[in-house]
Design goal:
315 residues, mainly alpha, MetI-like fold, 0% strand, globular
C-alpha cells in the first residue's frame, strides 16, 4: 500500500509540473499584451517599457516561467493587473463559494444518480425503470446552461420562490440561506452529472448481479434487498468512485458557464471576467489552482480505490 501511494505521489508531482507548464504556455500564447492593456494604446513608449519591466515581461520566456513557477511553489501567484490585490487573496475570496457550490452539486448528484442507476439496473421494464431511463436520456441531452436558464424562468420569474441571481451565503452561518441561494445552480450542474453517474452505476450493477456470489446468496435464501444492498451495491460502487472523483474535480473548475448564468461569485465567474479583461495573472493562478485541485482529488480517489480493492494496491 505504501509503495503504491509513493508511486502515485511521484506521478502527481510530475503531472502537476507538466500541467503548470501547459497553463503558463497557453496563457503566454494568448493574443494581446498585458502592458498595452494596462497603459492604454496611446501610452508613450517609455511608459510602456516601464510597465513591461515592472511585470517582468521583458525577461526571456524561460526566465519568466521559472520566476512564475518558483513564486507559485511558495504560494505567491503574482498580483492582479487591474486591482491592488494579490492573485492568491483574490482566489481565496472565490474558492469557498465554488467549493460550496461543488459540494451541493455533488450531494444532489449522489441523491439523484444512485437511486436512478439502481432502478435502471434492477427494474428496467417497470414504469419506474422507464421513467428513470427517460430522465437519463434527457439529462445527458440538455445543456447545463439551458437548464439553468429554464430553472430561473420557472422558479425565479414565474414562481418567485428562489432568487434569479445566486449569492454566496456560507452554509454554517445561514444554512437555510445557503440552500436557497445555491440550490438552482447546483441543480443545473447535478442533472447532467447524475445522469452520467447513473449510467456508470447501472452498467456496473447489471454486471455484478450476474456474478456467482450473487447467485449463491440468493440460493441461501438471503432476501433480495440484502443481496442488493450488502453484496451488489458495494461491489458495483467501486468503479463509480472514480467517476465521482472526476465529477467533483470538474465541479471545481468546470462551472464557469453556470456561475456566469446565475451571476454566482465563484472561481468560474472570476476566470470568465479575468479572461475578458486580459488579467493574465489571475487566469494563470486560477487555472493552476483548478489543475492542482483536480489532481489532488484524483490522487485521493486512487488511494481510496486501492484501499477498497486489494487487487489494485497489490498489483
Amino acid at each position: 500500500m505504501y509503495a503504491y501511494v509513493i508511486r502515485r505521489l511521484l506521478q502527481f508531482a510530475l503531472v502537476l509540473f507538466l500541467g503548470s507548464l501547459a497553463v503558463w504556455a497557453f496563457v503566454f500564447a494568448l493574443p494581446g499584451d498585458p502592458a498595452t492593456v494596462l497603459t492604454g494604446p496611446d501610452a508613450a513608449p517609455a511608459e510602456l517599457a516601464a510597465t513591461r519591466e515592472r511585470l517582468g515581461l521583458d525577461d526571456s520566456v524561460v526566465q519568466q516561467y521559472v520566476t512564475w513557477l518558483g513564486n507559485a511553489v511558495t504560494g505567491d501567484l503574482g498580483d492582479s493587473y487591474f486591482s491592488a490585490e494579490t492573485v492568491s487573496s483574490t482566489l481565496l475570496d472565490t474558492v469557498p463559494a465554488t467549493g460550496q457550490l461543488a459540494a451541493f452539486a455533488m450531494a444532489l448528484t449522489l441523491l439523484i444518480g444512485v437511486p436512478v442507476g439502481t432502478v435502471v439496473a434492477l427494474r428496467p421494464r417497470s414504469w419506474a425503470g422507464r421513467a428513470a431511463d427517460a430522465y437519463l436520456t434527457a439529462g445527458l441531452a440538455i445543456p447545463a446552461f439551458w437548464l439553468g436558464l429554464l430553472l430561473i424562468i420557472v422558479f425565479a420569474v414565474q414562481l418567485g420562490a428562489l432568487p434569479a441571481a445566486s449569492d454566496y451565503v456560507p452554509l454554517f452561518s445561514d444554512p437555510a440561506g445557503a440552500v436557497r441561494a445555491t440550490i438552482l445552480p447546483a441543480l443545473a450542474v447535478a442533472v447532467h452529472a447524475s445522469s452520467v453517474l447513473a449510467r456508470f452505476l447501472a452498467a456496473s450493477l447489471h454486471e455484478v448481479m450476474g456474478r456467482d456470489y450473487i447467485r449463491t446468496a440468493r440460493a441461501k435464501g438471503v432476501p433480495e434487498r440484502y443481496v442488493v444492498r450488502r453484496h451488489a451495491l458495494r461491489n458495483a460502487a467501486l468503479p463509480t468512485v472514480t467517476v465521482v472523483g472526476i465529477q467533483l474535480g470538474g465541479f471545481l473548475g468546470g462551472t464557469v458557464v453556470i456561475e456566469a448564468v446565475f451571476n454566482y461569485p465563484g472561481l468560474g465567474r472570476l476566470l470568465y471576467t479575468s479572461i475578458g479583461e486580459r488579467d493574465y495573472a489571475v487566469v494563470q493562478g486560477g487555472v493552476l489552482f483548478v489543475v492542482a485541485a483536480f489532481l489532488c482529488l484524483n490522487l485521493l480517489v486512487d488511494v481510496l480505490y486501492a484501499y477498497l480493492d486489494p487487487r489494485i494496491r497489490l498489483a
